[in-house]
Design brief:
Shape: elongated
Order of helices and strands: EEHHEHHEE
Largest sheet: 3 strands, antiparallel
Strand content: 5-15%
Radius of gyration: 22 Å
Number of helices: 4
CATH superfamily: Winged helix-like DNA-binding domain superfamily/Winged helix DNA-binding domain
Number of domains: 1
């Protein structure tokens, strides 16, 4: 393929497309993590670990305007839907986040 630069000089372009990442690494499914193996933070019992609650709260504080549904938050934080709901509900009770009528969680007071 011949091309011309801004000075009128012709030169050959040898452009080859690099293979896309999806050819070698198929994309992860859009489902939230449903198994313990897919989760970074695993806990037992009905109460999430304090370190997990602190991590999620920090993410909301560090990203002003962050507003997520349960499924979006579960995907972002690598949690199962139930576990994510427990964490967000605890943060809601602590006054860190609030839940809008549309079911979106955001930093309280935003």
């Amino acid at each position: 393929m011949l091309s011309v630069d801004r000075f009128g000089n012709a030169f050959a372009l040898n452009i080859s497309m690099a293979p896309t990442r999806t050819q070698s690494h198929p994309p992860r499914s859009l489902d939230v993590a449903l198994t313990a193996a897919d989760r970074i933070w695993i806990h037992s019992g009905n109460n999430p670990e304090p370190a997990l609650i602190t991590r999620v709260a920090s993410e909301f504080r560090e990203m002003p305007g962050l507003a997520l549904t349960i499924h979006q938050a579960a995907r972002l934080f690598h949690l199962g839907a139930q576990e994510c709901w427990q964490v967000l509900d605890q943060l809601r009770r602590d006054g860190v986040v609030e839940r809008t009528p549309a079911g979106v969680y955001r930093l309280a007071g935003e």
